[in-house]
């Protein structure tokens, strides 16, 4: 089996056979502008134009005193175009320099995808039905569901491959040779196949550059796994990205250890215990709120009954003890037992107040609730809306200003 293509046209594609090459010498074959931006075509290049789920390379091209940034690389009309900020004349000898750290990180992540996908297929028979990669994450969609234990096995075996330091081999089988090979592929046909093989783990048709061996991938981690269209969507990371992910988790765990006075390997257990206690406290708090609401409602409805009064005379309530649902329940109980206009406020001077104005429907025509609410909004710059029976909103004015407003309303009543 050959280790190179029959022809690469007029440009030697270094990235196809040597993914670790990030500095190279070349000559400018064409220098032009296609309406997008200026570009140059070289007689040989290590800049990957993107494909197979991996982004194109960026970097610089140097030519004597000229240094121009390579912002994007694409294949157009069969040629690899390096889109640059400044054109370089044809025939100029240049040095290309890739952003090596970015290229290496992408190869680490892409290589981990090959191992993960190959293992999932060999162990459980599921194909990789979707793959894309950004500089933030690697996404793999599997053709069927996987359990946590199955994913743990896949991840462990992928890292065993890293420790074994198995070579990534690149080959270019003929169509006849490819017919007799078992490999993963999303391309149609068997012509011009570039095959990436990790012996014992995966063989896949792929156009992207790769590291020399699995040992260069570093650690591989499946960060998350969620059901997706009958299969699983995996987020995977490797190499320095996996290291940074570990550092983040380690630092977060250290904070939890400090806050809970927990041993390093017991934080999950301590958090579970704390969560259970919190659930109990929430349940107890809910019951206490219900009882408080009942007592408050009972006290206020008794006061309303003792005072009497007309629907035009507002009865004002301030409370911090209820939640919005409790406030509405209180207002409903009050309007059910009295014809007074109920004006209830929840909050304080610092955060402002939520309010509900309401009356019993049978007295709504004479109560003038909407007029009262409109006047309140105008005088205190409040917000709200509703009907002749109930108006709800919010106001940032302090309690003193609100009480003064209603004192004036009572004088007019």
Q: What are the defining features of this structure?
A:
413 residues, alpha+beta, Elongation Factor Tu (Ef-tu), domain 3, Threonyl-tRNA Synthetase, Chain A, domain 2, Diaminopimelate Epimerase, Chain A, domain 1, 3 domains, five-stranded mixed beta sheet, elongated
Kindly describe this structure.
The protein has helices spanning 14-17, 100-124, 148-164, 175-179, 239-260, 267-307, 324-337, 364-367, 369-380, 399-412, and strands at residues 12-13, 23-33, 38-42, 44-45, 59-63, 66-76, 79-84, 93-98, 128-133, 138-142, 168-171, 195-198, 202-205, 220-228, 231-238, 314-319, 341-348, 352-358, 383-386, 390-395. It has 413 residues and is an alpha+beta fold. It folds into three domains: 12-98, Beta Barrel (Elongation Factor Tu (Ef-tu), domain 3), CATH 2.40.30.130; 103-259, 2-Layer Sandwich (Threonyl-tRNA Synthetase, Chain A, domain 2), CATH 3.30.980.10; 299-412, Roll (Diaminopimelate Epimerase, Chain A, domain 1), CATH 3.10.310. The strands form five sheets. The protein has a six-stranded antiparallel β-barrel with strand order 2-3-7-6-5-8. It has a five-stranded mixed beta sheet with strand order 16-17-18-20-19, with helices on both faces. The longest helix has 41 residues, at 267-307. The radius of gyration is 35 Å and the shape is elongated.
């Amino acid at each position: 089996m050959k280790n190179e293509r029959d022809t690469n046209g007029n440009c030697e594609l270094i990235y196809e056979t040597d993914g670790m090459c990030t500095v190279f010498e070349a000559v400018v074959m064409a220098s032009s502008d296609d309406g997008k931006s200026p570009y140059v075509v070289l007689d040989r290049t290590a800049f990957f134009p993107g494909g197979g789920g991996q982004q194109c390379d960026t970097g610089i091209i140097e030519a004597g005193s000229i240094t121009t940034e390579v912002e994007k690389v694409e294949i157009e009309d069969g040629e690899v175009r390096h889109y640059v900020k400044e054109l370089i004349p044809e025939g100029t000898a240049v040095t290309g320099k890739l952003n090596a750290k970015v290229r290496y990180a992408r190869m680490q992540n892409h290589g981990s995808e090959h191992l993960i996908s190959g293992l999932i297929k060999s162990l459980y028979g599921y194909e990789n039905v979707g793959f894309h990669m950004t500089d933030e994450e690697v996404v793999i969609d599997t053709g069927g569901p996987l359990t946590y234990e199955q994913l743990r096995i896949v991840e462990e075996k992928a890292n065993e491959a890293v420790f074994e330091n198995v070579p990534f081999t690149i080959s270019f089988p003929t169509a006849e040779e490819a017919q007799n090979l078992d490999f993963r592929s999303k391309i149609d046909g068997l012509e011009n196949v570039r095959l990436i093989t990790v012996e014992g783990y995966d063989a896949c048709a792929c156009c992207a550059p790769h590291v020399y061996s699995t040992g260069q991938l570093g650690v591989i981690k499946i960060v998350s796994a969620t059901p997706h269209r009958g299969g699983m969507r995996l987020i995977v990371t490797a190499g320095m990205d996996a290291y940074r992910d570990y550092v983040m988790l380690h630092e977060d765990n250290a904070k939890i250890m400090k806050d809970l006075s927990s041993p390093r390997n017991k934080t999950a257990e301590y958090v579970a215990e704390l969560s259970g206690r919190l659930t109990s406290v929430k349940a107890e708090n809910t019951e206490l709120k219900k009882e408080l609401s009942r007592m408050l409602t009972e006290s206020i409805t008794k006061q309303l009954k003792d005072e009497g009064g007309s629907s035009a005379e507002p009865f004002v309530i301030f409370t911090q003890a209820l939640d919005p649902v409790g406030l509405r329940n209180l207002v409903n109980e009050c309007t059910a037992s009295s014809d007074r206009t109920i004006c209830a406020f929840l909050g304080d001077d610092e955060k402002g107040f939520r309010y509900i104005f309401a009356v019993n429907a049978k007295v709504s025509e004479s109560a003038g609730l909407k007029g009262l609410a409109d006047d309140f909004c105008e005088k205190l710059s409040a917000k709200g809306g509703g009907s002749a029976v109930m108006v709800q909103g919010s106001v940032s004015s302090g309690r003193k200003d609100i009480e003064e407003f209603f004192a004036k309303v009572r004088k007019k009543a």
